[in-house]
Fold each of these.
Amino acid sequence: MRKRIKKRSSGRKLNPSLNDAGLDFRNTLNALVSVFLLSLLLHGCALFRPPPQQTVLLPALESREIISDFKEVLERQADCGCCLDAEVSVTFSASTMLWNRAGTLDGYLLAASPSFFKFIAVNPLGQPLLLIGTSGETFTSVIVPENKAYIGVVHSKTFTKYAPKGFNPEQSYGWLTGRLQPVLFEIISLRRGEEEGSYWLDIRFESEEFARSILFNPERGVITRHIVMDDKGRTQMDVRYGEFISRNAESCLFPGRITVSGLDHNGKVAITLHSVIPDASLQDNDFKIKIPSSFEQVIVE
């Protein structure tokens, strides 16, 4: 049944049956899923402030070295693996004056450059409870206890309205791995960060209205924070990267923990990676989600 609303080759073994999965968890999962989707989709608010400005100018030589190191790291991003396959724990929270909800979902995360993403939340028996996937063009979300699936395109009015401002679903792999999308950008300013050995680079992508502040550690060659702000300086999304894991070489580090804050309703999502498969190789079919014929399908427009 369909209705409309407006607005694995990696070797991991999952129970393929959605119809039998974890229906005893219905009451508790409904609340957790609602908060998880809320935290992922709702756009930013004005409660978070951009990082404090450093008024002391850096010496010209130091500035040139930091900018050179930054550009070198961006140039070798493509050599640091195309795919991610890991077990994950996702914690999430959201609150208002009237309610406060939080929870944790364990499962599996698949991602591939530039835009493929799939998250499978499972119960203690390894059966799927929630599936979210996107190709960068379309998305599918399946809530198993409700026997319901949501499908649509990422450029639909509803998705665009509720997705974090400045988030480009066509570059979701970069957001997960602490990379910048390969577009032209201008470095507006450079200053020392609060963390020792780190620097803030204020940049603006070509043909984009948002300003971005990037916290960069040149010694480790990693981005540890990425803040997106609107034209009034209000934070739309604040992503922190930490617990870096070596991949193939010391020069290819990727984050083992990603924390997203600055969302509506004080929303916050933290993704912690476990059991990462090195040199993962994934295909398009690994990201497809098959919806059981008995599930109601809701088309998001």
Note: The domain at 2-300 is CATH 2.50.20.10 (outer membrane lipoprotein receptor (LolB), chain A).
Amino acid sequence: MSVASIFPANDFDTVLESARGELECGLVIGYNKDGFLTSFGGGMSGGRQPTAAFWLYMLKQFEIDLMNGVYSDE
């Protein structure tokens, strides 16, 4: 698993465009233009629509990997 570098992308649309066609399903979390946290999720996982528990698992796995330095270049 890896996180693609978004630099020097200052426009988040560039990040989304680079993910196009690469994911079976995904979750996007961020702040909207009014500063409120918002999220979008979609796609299919193993031929099934993801459940809330699946999205939570995805978030927690990302958190564990992030805390363990999986995405670090160091």
Note: The mean pLDDT is 84.
